[in-house]
Fold this sequence. Notes:
alpha+beta; 4-stranded antiparallel β-sheet; 4 strands; globular
Amino acid sequence: MGIALLSDPELTIALATLPQWARDGDAITRTVQAESFLAGIETVRKVAVAAEAADHHPDIDIRWRTVRFTLSTHSAGGLTSLDVAMAHAIDDIVG
Length: 95
């Protein structure tokens, strides 16, 4: 059995602890403005290290200094505690 999807009330509580994140269908997203292109790439590198350690990987879109992270547990078909944990890890990295 895989990991359970979060219920709407569970997701509401989780998002209250993640003020920079927003729900987008079956995913949550956060956009970060880096000081420079290279600073954005360095943020992505740090997130990649954390994602490998957690074995849970965000979708990442890089547009010059704008980096957008999208989290969803594809194997579960939506949002799970893995996404919430990775969102907190990204927040810790981004500051």
